[in-house]
């Protein structure tokens, strides 16, 4: 097995069993090819197939002897509705004027998400297939080099998760273009070492991120490995797996121990990357309030084309949107945006939030963390182990497929044996 | 029926949202109420912190957690406290905040306008509903309280343009009016 087989794309839609895709019943009728144009035009007026846009209206069959047979979909057929009683009058008229003989047939209910699905669908009735118009690196597969890099970063997340006796979730945010770690974090649900002083707070933020180093710090890995003996094999402390566990916690006498129920690894790593941003690019902050225009400009020129890939045209600093503002087009063609963004060819300076970055998580994130990663504009999420009860990226919910959200990341599972959590030898 | 107290607390949340607007943040604000008293407030700080998760709710929650820790409360006591708290927020909590509020076991949430794109209390997901499979106890939720006021604030913000959004790929409708 090569490395790239270990990375699975978790698609936007739950995959259907290829051979048992959901179908709906429709009334169809064979028609005289001479009338096809008129009939289809009329049907589109009086009986458009609103929810079946992926289904072709006409099926063409070549019979023996080269004769062509056309069939057309008339309308949906509802449960137990074998008669044409419920067909609207205008359609009834059409049927009688062309002397059609309707029959019931099945078409696939959902648009195909893969070529294989599409080929199966066409066995019922032809559909159209539109492969996604944008591609986030990896959806169509990883090169050997890229998958090695993915596995290496996942390995560092696993080591972080198991580095302190108790297994928790861990997060590593990476800039893949530079193969650079932006920030790392462990769950701090049960052991948040509070530090009220802002300067101290910042320092600790920065020490947990690696703004300069281009690769993993071997010293750190060494340190992680040495602490593996104390491993306990319980996952009860993994924030995203047991978000309600915190309330069971008995009080700790040590003052350094504290419980913050929401400090899951992803949240903490976002906080660290934000702190890093403020540290590395302090000027934008100071000029922001005085000079709107210049800030806008500095932001607009600082985004590399690469990092703009999945950002929609109307991105808000915060995602509390006016419910009434329906102006932004939700089905924006990302491809188009992409072409536009190619025009900005300046090298990256300051990214907008985590645009263009990847995050490695040992466990599939809960809804809180998954949505936080939408807000922070992460480009790709890699996780090793699913979260069957509260996972938001395929297990329970599938935020990567929520059309209404203003940002969509690509999600991958890195297949690791569970033993990876119990031994730290690399 | 909206009780007079509900309106008073929502008015305070709106005040918080106005503070956010003044600071060029997306204007959403909230207050947390225990036994009829406001014990914490918060407003968006996503721009200032460059951390898009710093929503009003998260800000207010952190105020409480810090304070209760200072007072030496155990986690079971903290959980009990939250189960007696109500949140008043000008916009329906997003999926992240709704999930956080459920994790904390807050008693109930009153919100202003709904959040058609990101809402976690019914609009997109329903994280306020009890779910035995995940042990989510959920929380009571009521929306539409002073929604018009909340919307006006958001509209004001977006009309003046969000200075923090990256360069738009298409011309802004309001570009000429700054």
From TrEMBL, chain A:
What processes does the entry annotate via GO biological process terms?
tRNA wobble adenosine to inosine editing
Bias-annotated ranges (Basic and acidic residues): 281-298
Lineage top rank: taxon: Eukaryota
GO cellular component, as recorded:
cytoplasm; nucleus
Concerning PANTHER family, the annotation shows: CYTOSINE DEAMINASE FAMILY MEMBER (PTHR11079), INACTIVE TRNA-SPECIFIC ADENOSINE DEAMINASE-LIKE PROTEIN 3-RELATED (PTHR11079:SF156)
As for family, the record states:
Belongs to the cytidine and deoxycytidylate deaminase family. ADAT3 subfamily.
Protein name in the entry:
tRNA-specific adenosine deaminase TAD3 isoform X1
Q: Which organism is it from?
A: Cicer arietinum
Lineage, broadest ranks: Eukaryota, Viridiplantae, Streptophyta, Embryophyta, Tracheophyta
Q: Source gene?
A: LOC101504283
UniProtKB/TrEMBL annotation, chain B:
Q: Name one GO biological process term.
A: tRNA wobble adenosine to inosine editing
Q: Does the keyword Ligase apply?
A: no
Q: Which ranges carry the CMP/dCMP-type deaminase domain?
A: 4-132
Record flagged with keyword Transmembrane: no
Coiled coil region boundaries: none
Q: Which InterPro entries match?
A: APOBEC/CMP_deaminase_Zn-bd, CMP_dCMP_dom, Cytidine_deaminase-like
Gene3D superfamilies the UniProt entry points to: Cytidine Deaminase, domain 2
Tell me where on the tree of life, at the top rank, the source sits.
Answer: Eukaryota
Pfam families (alphabetical)? dCMP_cyt_deam_1 (PF00383)
UniProt GO molecular function: tRNA-specific adenosine-34 deaminase activity; zinc ion binding
Q: What UniProt keywords apply to this chain's record, in alphabetical order?
A: Hydrolase, Metal-binding, Zinc
Q: What is this protein called?
A: tRNA-specific adenosine deaminase TAD2
The taxonomy runs:
Eukaryota, Viridiplantae, Streptophyta, Embryophyta, Tracheophyta
Gene name tied to this protein: LOC101501351
């Amino acid at each position: 097995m090569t490395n790239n087989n270990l990375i699975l794309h978790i698609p936007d839609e739950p995959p259907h069993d290829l051979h048992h895709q959901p179908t709906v019943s429709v009334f169809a009728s064979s028609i005289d090819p001479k009338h096809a144009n008129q009939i289809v035009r009329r049907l589109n007026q009086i009986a458009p197939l609103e929810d079946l846009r992926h289904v072709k209206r006409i099926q063409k069959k070549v019979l023996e002897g080269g004769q062509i047979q056309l069939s057309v979909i008339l309308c949906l057929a509802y449960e137990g509705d074998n008669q044409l009683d419920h067909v609207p009058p205008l359609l009834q008229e059409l049927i009688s004027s062309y002397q059609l003989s309707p029959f019931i047939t099945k078409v696939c209910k959902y648009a195909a998400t893969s070529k294989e699905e599409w080929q199966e669908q066409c066995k019922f009735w032809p559909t159209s297939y539109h492969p996604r118009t944008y591609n986030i690196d990896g959806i169509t597969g990883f090169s050997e080099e890229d998958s090695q890099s993915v596995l290496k970063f996942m390995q560092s997340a696993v080591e972080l998760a198991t580095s302190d006796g108790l297994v928790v979730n861990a997060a590593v945010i990476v800039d893949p273009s530079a193969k650079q770690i932006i920030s790392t974090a462990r769950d701090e649900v049960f052991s948040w070492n509070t530090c009220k002083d802002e300067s101290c707070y910042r320092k600790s933020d920065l020490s947990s991120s690696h703004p300069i180093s281009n690769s993993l710090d071997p010293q750190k890995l060494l340190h992680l490995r040495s602490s593996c003996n104390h491993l306990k094999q319980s996952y009860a402390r993994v924030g995203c797996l047991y978000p309600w566990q915190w309330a069971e916690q008995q009080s700790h006498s040590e003052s350094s121990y504290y419980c913050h129920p929401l400090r899951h690894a992803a949240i903490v790593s976002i906080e660290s990357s934000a702190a890093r941003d403020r540290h590395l690019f302090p000027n934008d902050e100071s000029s922001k309030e005085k000079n709107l225009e210049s800030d806008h400009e500095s932001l607009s020129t600082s985004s590399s084309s690469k990092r703009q890939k999945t950002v929609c045209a109307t991105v808000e600093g915060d995602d509390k949107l006016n419910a009434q503002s329906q102006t932004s087009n939700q089905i924006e063609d990302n491809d188009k945006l992409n072409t536009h963004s190619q025009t900005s060819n300046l090298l990256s300076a300051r990214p907008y939030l985590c645009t263009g970055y990847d995050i490695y998580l040992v466990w599939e994130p809960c809804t809180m963390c998954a949505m936080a990663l939408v807000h922070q504009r992460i480009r790709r999420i890699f996780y090793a182990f699913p979260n069957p009860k509260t996972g938001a990226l395929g297990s329970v919910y599938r935020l990567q497929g929520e059309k209404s959200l203003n940002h969509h990341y690509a999600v991958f599972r890195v297949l690791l044996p569970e033993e990876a959590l119990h031994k730290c030898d690399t | 029926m909206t009780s007079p107290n509900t309106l008073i607390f929502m008015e305070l949340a709106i005040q918080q949202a106005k503070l956010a607007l003044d600071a060029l943040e997306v204007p959403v604000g909230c207050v947390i109420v225990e036994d009829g008293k406001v014990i914490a407030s918060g407003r968006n700080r996503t721009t200032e912190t460059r951390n898009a998760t710093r929503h009003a709710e998260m800000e207010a929650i952190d105020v409480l957690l810090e304070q209760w820790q200072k007072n030496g409360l155990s986690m079971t006591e903290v959980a009990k406290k939250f189960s007696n708290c109500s949140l008043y927020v000008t916009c329906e909590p997003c999926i992240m905040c709704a999930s956080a509020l459920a994790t904390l076991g807050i008693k109930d949430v009153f919100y202003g306008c709904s959040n058609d794109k990101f809402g976690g209390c019914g609009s997109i997901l329903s994280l306020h509903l009890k779910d035995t499979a995940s042990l989510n106890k959920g929380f009571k939720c009521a929306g539409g309280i002073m929604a018009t006021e909340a919307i006006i604030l958001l509209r004001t913000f977006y009309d003046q343009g969000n200075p923090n959004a990256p360069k738009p790929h298409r011309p802004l409708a309001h570009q000429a009016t700054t």
